[in-house]
Amino acid sequence: MKPIDSDNLNDTIGKIKKFNSKVLSIDRLEQLLLNINNAPAKQKVTINADGKLIFININDIIFVQSDGNYSTIYLKNNKKKVVTKKLKDINAILPQSSFFRTHSSYIVSLHKIKEFLKTEGYLIMESNHEIPVARQRKSEFLDKI
């Protein structure tokens, strides 16, 4: 409101800075928890979904399938988890040494591939699911494995 009182303005700016630093430190803490996954001896990934953290053993993941803003994580023993994360977000937290995005809708565990049918352009996973490999990613996939 006019006229501006410089003391009130300085107090308000101080409150905003203090509030933003708290919000940033909470966001930073969440990011650090998620980045724990980048440790070399990582055994689990942490997925922040629906206000909770889901811990999944990376050895249990067979593949991840996208469905718009949702992703389905297929695990051993025919289990699956549906999370409200886009595939690119999940791809960012999975270790690139063990996982590969074969298609715009799929990420696979390189350790769970049973067969690669080159002429048809798809993988057969340990769970017997057939996963397509995009033509433009085929040579990069072959280099990776």
Short description:
The protein has 145 residues and is of the alpha+beta class.
Walkthrough of the structure:
The protein is an alpha+beta fold and 145 residues long. The protein has a single domain (39-144), classed as OB fold (Dihydrolipoamide Acetyltransferase, E2P) (Beta Barrel). The protein has 3 helices and 10 strands. The strands form 3 sheets. Strands 5-4-3-7-6 form a 5-stranded antiparallel beta sheet. The protein has a 3-stranded antiparallel beta sheet with strand order 8-9-10, with no helix packed on it. A two-stranded antiparallel sheet has the order 1-2. A hairpin with a 2-residue loop joins strand 1 (44-49) and strand 2 (52-57). The longest helix is centred in the N-terminal third of the chain and has 30 residues, at 6-35. The radius of gyration is 22 Å and the shape is elongated. The model has no long low-confidence stretch (mean pLDDT 85).
